[in-house]
Amino acid sequence: MAHVEAPEPARDCKLCPRLVAFRHDNQAAHPDWFNGAVPSFGPERARLLIVGLAPGLKGANRTGRPFLGDYAGELLYHTLLKTGLARGQHDVETPEALELVDCMITNAVRCVPPQNKPRPDEIKRCRAFLIGRMQALPNLRTFLAIGRIAHDAILDALQLKKRDFPFSHGARHDLPDGLVLFDSYHCSRQNTNTGRLTTSMFEKVVGQAAASLEG
User: Fold this and answer.
1) Which residues contact 27 (CB under 8 A, 6 or more apart)?
2) Number of compact structural domains in the chain
3) Residue 70: how many other CB atoms lie within 10 Å
4) Are the beta carbons of 72 and 188 closer than 8 angstroms?
5) Is the pLDDT assigned to residue 1 strictly greater than 50?
6) Residue 195 falls within a domain, yes or no?
C-alpha cells in the first residue's frame, strides 16, 4: 500500500525552527491571533486546489483561514464569488458567511514566515502536507498556483520537472494523469499596486480554472 501523508500539520507544528520562533514572538505580541499552522479551507470533494505561498502575518496567521484578513484575500475571495467558486458573502468578521464551491485553498508553507519569505528548506519540509492534501482530495482535477513558489511547490509535490512546465501568468499546463495547472501572479498588494497584476487579469485566470471543471 502506498504511503499516505497527513494533509494537515498540527497547529503547533515543530518542523521549522525559524518559523516556530517567529510564531512564539507573535503569540507573545498578539495572544488573541490564531498564530499556528493554518489549515486548508474548503470541501473535501473539491476538484480545484488553489495553492498560495504562505499565511500573511496579519491575514491568515491572525484569522486561521488561508488568505483571510489581508489585501490578497480581499481580491481572491471576491473573485471566487464572482466566478461561482464561492457562495455567500465575504466578511472578515463573519467568515462562516462564505462557503467555497468545488474548490479548496491551501498554502505551500502553512506557517507565517518573517517578511513573507519562506526559506527553501521550510518549503521542502512542508511539502509532505501539500502531498497529503492532494492525496486526500479524491476528485482533484485542477490546480491554481498563486505565484511562482506555489507553482514550483505543486510540481515538486507531483515529482515533475519545472523546466517542462515553466511558470507564466495565465499559463495552462496539462499535467500527467489528466491534471491541469493554471498559473497566476500572486494577488498581493505589491503586484496590484505596481500594475503587474490587474483585477481583470486575475479574474480571467480564476475564471479559466473554474471553467476547466465543466464538462
Assistant:
1) 33, 35
2) 1
3) 22
4) yes
5) no
6) yes
Give the CATH number for residue 186: 3.40.470.10
- Measure the CA–CA gap between 22 and 200, rounded to whole angstroms: 35
Which structural domain range is residue 174 located in? Answer: 43-211
Q: How confident is the model at residue 214 (pLDDT cuts 50, 70, 90)?
A: confident
Q: Are 144 and 51 within 8 A, CB to CB?
A: yes
- 8 Å CB contact between 38 and 61: yes
Q: Give tens-digit pLDDT for 175-210.
A: 999 999 999 999 999 999 999 999 999 999 999 999
Name the residue among 183, 114, 116 with its Cα closest to residue 153.
Answer: 183
Residues 6+ apart with CB under 8 A from 115: none
Q: Quick: pLDDT tens for 129-169.
A: 999 999 999 999 999 999 999 999 999 999 999 999 999 99
Q: Is residue 38 part of a domain?
A: no
The phi, psi pair for 5, rounded to 5°, reads -85, 155
| Three cell numbers, residue 27 | 503569540
Assigned domain for 112 exists = yes
Pairing relationship of beta strands 98-100 and 86-88 according to DSSP bridges:
antiparallel
Going by their DSSP bridges, the two strands 48-52 and 142-146 should be labelled as parallel
pTM value is: 0.97
Residue 94's alpha-carbon distances to 38, 88, 91, 98, 179, in angstroms, are 18, 11, 5, 8, 34
Q: What is the secondary structure of 160-185 as a DSSP string?
A: --GGGS---TT-EEE-GGG-EEEEE-
